[in-house]
Design goal:
It is built from 7 helices and 10 strands. With 230 residues, it is α/β, with parallel strands linked by helices.
């Protein structure tokens, strides 16, 4: 993994601003669930006769969006609600090797009630994964089944800002996927991208790119949340 890179043509100065809140993705941002997610999609694909090579990009997007796309592309004729519920069940049954990523625990502890988790997973799953990784979920969780349109649309991050009672333009979104970065920018927030899953070249619109949360420090001060590089 490389060092810190400012990637967009006109990035916001993440380390120079102060933020009202920090809105964090969960999978591959706070927790390493990559292997469990891959196993879950493989098991789901096997059950529905989908060649694994046809799954395409699944990272950072709600599972229902992926299942709907596969149904359209492959003409599967799925009951989308049933197929989504099957995937949920598969994911909830596989929490093996789900662990906290570097800096995640420290970030949540430093941010306290200035943090929200915004995820493309359902509430039972994100809660189970955070707790399995030894992390305490913040009070505000915005999950895939609670918004009409998931990432890369802005709805998830707009809802998180609303629930925290803050201006989305004064929020920092922390993401690891291109879809998540687009979602954060569409909501008007600044973005901090992590190189935990996605190549740097695909995170080109992020305001700041770092290897993981251990590369930055959050401090809650009188004027808001400050971010500094380690």
């Amino acid at each position: 993994m490389g060092g810190v890179t400012e990637a967009s043509p006109h990035p916001r100065d993440v380390t120079g601003e102060h933020f009202e809140a920090v809105l964090l993705d969960s999978d591959s941002t706070l927790v390493d669930s990559e292997a469990a997610v891959a196993r879950s999609w493989e098991a789901w694909a096997d059950r529905y006769g989908v060649p694994p090579g046809r799954l395409g990009e699944t990272h950072g997007m709600p599972s229902r969006q992926t299942i709907g796309r596969l149904d359209r592309e492959l003409g599967l004729g799925l009951d989308l609600e049933e197929a989504g519920a099957v995937f949920d069940e598969i994911e909830l049954s596989d929490l093996e090797d789900v662990v906290a990523l570097p800096g995640a625990s420290e970030a949540l502890a430093a941010l306290g009630d200035r943090a929200a988790v915004v995820t493309s997973a359902g509430r039972p799953l994100v809660t189970a994964r955070l707790r399995s990784a030894g992390l305490t979920p913040p009070a505000v969780l915005v999950c895939a089944d609670e918004v009409e349109r998931g990432k890369p649309d802005p709805d998830p991050y707009l809802q998180a800002a609303t629930r925290l009672g803050v201006d989305p333009a004064r929020c920092l979104v922390v993401e690891d996927s291109a879809a998540g970065v687009r979602s954060g920018h569409a909501a008007g927030a600044a973005t901090l991208a992590l190189l935990t899953t996605t190549p740097e070249a695909e995170l080109g619109t992020a305001d700041l790119v770092v290897p993981d949360l251990a590369a930055v420090r959050f401090r809650v001060e009188a004027d808001g949340v400050r971010v500094s590089r380690r």
